[in-house]
Specification:
The complex is a heterodimer of chains A (about 240) and B (about 625). By secondary structure, chain A is an alpha+beta fold. Chain A contains eight helices and seven strands, in the order ββαβββββααααααα. Chain B has a five-stranded parallel β-sheet with strand order 6-2-1-10-18. A five-stranded antiparallel β-sheet of chain B has the order 12-16-15-13-14.
Chain lengths: ~240, ~625
């Protein structure tokens, strides 16, 4: 099938960038990224610069890929990363607009590649449990009720892709930060440092230029792991408990 | 080159403890005087960075991704083995050790494997303490499931995302050390060379993938944790950026490469659907706990699966291997699927697929239980194939998944270059000719959390390491080499893209150095690779410059290494005139088509030494002694 693509091209962080139009002869079994590979092959053969984008595992778990497709982070398919979108969802002759994740905290590096290192710095501020490698107690000395472990796992499933930020009108990183805080708040292992963790991670999130949460819930709608905004409610509770 | 495996004396179950008792230590005050470079921060690298940072070393960690949470360990689904015996089903450290040696078809080092089994329990404890949300029973205790190649339930898991959760655990431990100032991160850096000064590994050269800067970095020791080389085959379950460049450039600096022909073809992947395909997707082996593998009894049976009656189905794994059934090890399951398809009984459009059927499990346990166990995998399958596996059996076919071969290391995980250590999938040591399911995560974390913190100190405390600087000749020489290679690649100005070349190389490798190999196919592969490689250096087309983000340029450098590595894989396979584990030579099989080992001549580790451009590499042999486990033909019948 023939598709028209409107793709954001930007040479570097200081370039203004603009949309460029392309056409591509795709096939319905291709994944979205395979369609872009196909376009890039064509561009290289013609002597034009290929469209740069991040991708790695191509099965929705590494969190590398991410673009805004027709205004939606990760595109039209709920609960899927960009790499999991397949071309069978598109029709002959359709026009698809492709942009990078846009946020103050995610400066564009080139084309669709953005710098998400702010997420790492939020994790460095407290996204861990302080335990040295050595001789921890036997795993079964810390029983955790199954429902709690499952709930913690729901939040732990975050792949750090940044779609939540890209979808939020405030460019808030609350779902990302909240998911980690909520995971540890549900587990006995996270108890000792819960106040410090909430305070430090949230302070860092603000320092990185991410906005506050206004409950739009756009983040939940685009999250490829369908993480609930309950994470944000839990994060706020943790923060209140930590500061007062 | 002399191979000294440095296996400690004593009975196999006491070696590690005896070794720990007598290796040298670095005093706490002195640790901060040592700088350690870690390349690659997946399970092995991140766990090593965290542990060494905690001990007080200065750690510098380099990785190609924007953040180390992207490392391909993240994609491991099924689980991690540990001999905890929580289910009381008779598991012991000894049994995990024996299963792993046997599963590896007697081509791994006993002492290393025993140590792996020995520390397996501590890994689980460590991860629980870090807050890894493992699956739990209703009583709140840790849950286990069974996996291929074992008759006990010793696999711990976090839904179908065990690798993700373990990696995030190691990543968080490493981030804590970043916060403490003991680990410094260097994201989006690709290691392009190793710097050897006075015969010792003293640094690396990296390319900054954002602006193209070639940078030198010095250290007292270098740890390579860069994963496997499955992407030589183009189509594999590996992530797109997983590559062999770091290990290959170390090989060219003098690190021996071991058993390159030992590659694992995973039995349960989603079949290829077309030429445009960029990678294959694995479906966790845990599916074989409840799914039954079958193919039609009759050739060319094109009926939809649900219309094929019971007596016209061949549950070939259950038929051939009644005691393990669908849980037969990976190499055996993969080969059986290939045989069925080669007989013309394959299914789907291409005829290169067999069924993995959950009908009986759904009847027995109900749809809800199956959804709880495998829901995310079923969703993933449906998303890719547009078919509902609750109603229609899955179609699966084997795909390249893991490489058991890698850089040669001694018992301390040090390569043949002093000061260069190799951890995780990048080394060769623990899995022999075939890796059992749920053992990769175990090995990566064992190496990083529980082995390297001990063995590295021994080297540092007993070795003189005078100061080096990145202005030294060795750094300049390495930097110049890289610039020349980059210039050469960008200057070819041919007509064919990197991807086109890679696809062609992949096809040569899959057809001739894949699941079944012959003298003829291997010789053909060596010939074809040489021709293609020559064409690559004359007809490659690259766009852009080396002063910017240029993924195609990165890719070209990696492919240049794959040509050379692919050839070595074929040579190694040609020389190993036996069948063992993932290495199946058609000429060497038993009457009923099983792998026929030749222990008299081939019970050794092949270690290849680089002899220079255009010269034949030299083969060294480390003979393998089996003192604890008796050499025997594997039988899963």
């Amino acid at each position: 099938m023939k598709l028209n693509l409107r793709i954001w091209r930007q040479k570097g962080p200081n370039d203004r960038g603009s949309f460029k139009n392309y056409t591509v002869e795709a096939n319905e079994h291709m994944s979205f990224l395979e369609m872009l590979d196909f376009l890039n092959e064509d561009l290289i053969v013609k002597g034009e610069e290929p469209v740069e984008f991040d991708s790695d595992c191509r099965e929705g778990i590494c969190g590398s890929c991410g673009m805004v497709i027709d205004g939606v982070a990760h595109g039209p398919w709920q609960g899927a990363a960009t790499c999991q979108v397949h071309m069978r969802h598109y029709r002959e002759g359709e026009t698809i607009t492709i942009e990078p994740f846009r946020a103050k905290g995610f400066p564009v590096i080139k084309d669709l590649v953005v710098d998400r290192s702010a997420f790492d710095r939020i994790m460095i501020a407290g996204g861990y449990i302080s335990v040295n490698t050595g001789a921890p107690p036997d795993g079964n000395t810390i029983p955790i009720p199954q429902d709690k472990a499952e709930r913690a796992m729901d939040f732990a499933a975050c792949i750090g892709c940044g779609a939540c930020v890209a979808a939020c009108p405030n460019s808030s990183a609350s779902l990302f930060t909240g998911a980690k805080i909520a995971q540890f708040a549900l587990l006995p292992q996270g108890e000792t440092e819960r106040k410090r963790r909430a305070r430090r991670m949230i302070d860092q999130m603000e320092k990185e230029g991410f906005g506050d949460c206004s409950n739009y819930a756009e983040c939940e709608a685009v999250c490829p792991k369908e993480i609930s905004i309950e994470a944000i409610a839990r994060m706020r509770r943790e923060y209140l408990k930590a500061v007062f | 080159m002399k191979l000294d495996s440095k296996i400690p004396a004593g009975p196999v179950n006491e070696k590690w403890d005896l070794h720990k008792n007598c290796i040298k230590l670095v005093s706490p005050a002195n640790k901060r005087k040592y700088t350690i470079i870690i390349v690659g921060t997946g399970l092995a690298g991140a766990s090593a960075a965290a542990s060494l940072g905690e001990l007080g070393y200065n750690v510098k960690a380099y990785f190609i991704h924007d953040t180390s949470r992207r490392a391909h360990s993240i994609a491991a689904q099924g689980g991690i083995n540990a001999a905890k015996n929580y289910p009381n089903d008779g598991d012991t450290i000894w049994r995990l050790f024996v299963d792993t040696v046997k599963g590896g078809d007697f081509r791994a080092r006993e002492a290393n494997v025993y140590r792996l089994a020995q520390v397996s329990g501590a890994i689980i404890d460590q991860c629980v303490a870090q807050g890894v949300p493992f699956a739990r029973e209703y009583g709140g205790l840790l849950a286990n499931r069974s996996f291929g190649g074992a008759q006990v339930s010793r696999t711990f898991y976090a839904r179908g995302q065990t690798g993700q959760q373990l990696l995030l655990g190691a990543y968080s431990a490493m981030m804590r050390q970043v916060d403490a100032g003991r680990v410094k991160l260097f994201p989006r850096r690709e290691m392009l060379d190793l710097v050897v000064v006075n015969g010792k590994a003293r640094g690396i050269i990296t390319r900054n993938l954002i602006n193209g800067d070639i940078e030198g970095h010095e250290a007292h020791a270098v740890l390579l944790c860069t994963g496997g080389y499955g992407n030589v085959y183009y189509l594999s379950t590996n992530a797109k950026n997983s590559n062999a460049t770091a290990v290959w450039r170390c090989y060219k600096r003098g690190a021996a490469f071991s058993n390159p022909c030992f590659t694992q073809i995973h039995p349960t992947c989603i079949p290829q659907s077309g030429d445009y395909q960029s990678k294959l997707t694995l479906m966790s082996e845990s599916l074989r706990n409840d799914g039954r593998v079958w193919a039609p009894k009759n050739k060319g049976d094109k009926r939809p699966p649900n219309e094929i009656p019971e007596d016209e189905r061949d549950y070939y794994l259950e038929r051939k291997y009644p005691s393990y059934g669908n849980l037969a090890p990976r190499d055996i399951s993969s080969r059986s699927a290939k045989e069925v398809c080669d007989e013309g009984r394959g299914v789907g459009d291409t005829g290169f697929a067999v069924y993995l059927d959950f009908r009986d499990a759904i009847d027995r346990l109900g749809k809800e239980v199956i959804r709880q166990r495998y829901g995310n995998l079923f969703d993933m399958y449906q998303r890719i194939t547009d078919e509902n596996p609750y109603e229609v059996p899955m179609r699966i076919y084997p795909a390249v998944h893991y490489t058991m071969g890698g850089l040669w290391v001694d018992y301390n995980l040090m390569s043949t270059i002093p000061g260069l250590y190799v951890l995780g999938e990048a080394n060769f040591s623990d899995h022999g000719a075939n890796r059992l399911g749920a053992s990769a995560l175990m090995q990566g974390l064992a190496d990083g959390y529980f082995v390297i913190p001990y063995t590295l100190g021994d080297y540092l405390a007993s070795t003189e390491l005078p100061k080096v600087a990145t202005e030294d000749d060795a750094f300049n020489e390495a930097t110049d080499n890289i610039s020349q290679m980059t210039e050469k690649l960008l200057g070819i100005n041919g007509d064919k893209t990197v991807l086109q070349f890679h696809r062609e190389l992949g096809k040569i490798m899959w057809d001739n150095v894949g699941m079944a190999r012959t003298k003829r196919s291997l010789e053909l592969a060596i010939k074809q690779i040489k021709i293609l490689r020559e064409e690559f250096w004359q007809n490659l087309k690259l766009i852009g410059s080396d002063q910017e983000l240029n993924k195609d340029l990165e890719y070209a450098g990696r492919l240049a290494d794959y040509f050379e590595l692919g050839e070595l894989m074929a040579q190694d396979a040609l020389l190993r005139k036996e069948s063992c584990g993932g290495h199946f030579r058609k000429e060497y099989q038993t009457g009923d088509g099983e792998a026929l080992r030749n222990d008299k001549e081939f019970a050794y580790v092949a270690a290849w030494e680089y002899k220079g451009e255009g010269k034949k590499p030299k083969l060294h042999k480390e003979s393998l002694k089996f003192e604890a486990v008796k050499l025997a033909q594997r039988s899963y019948k």
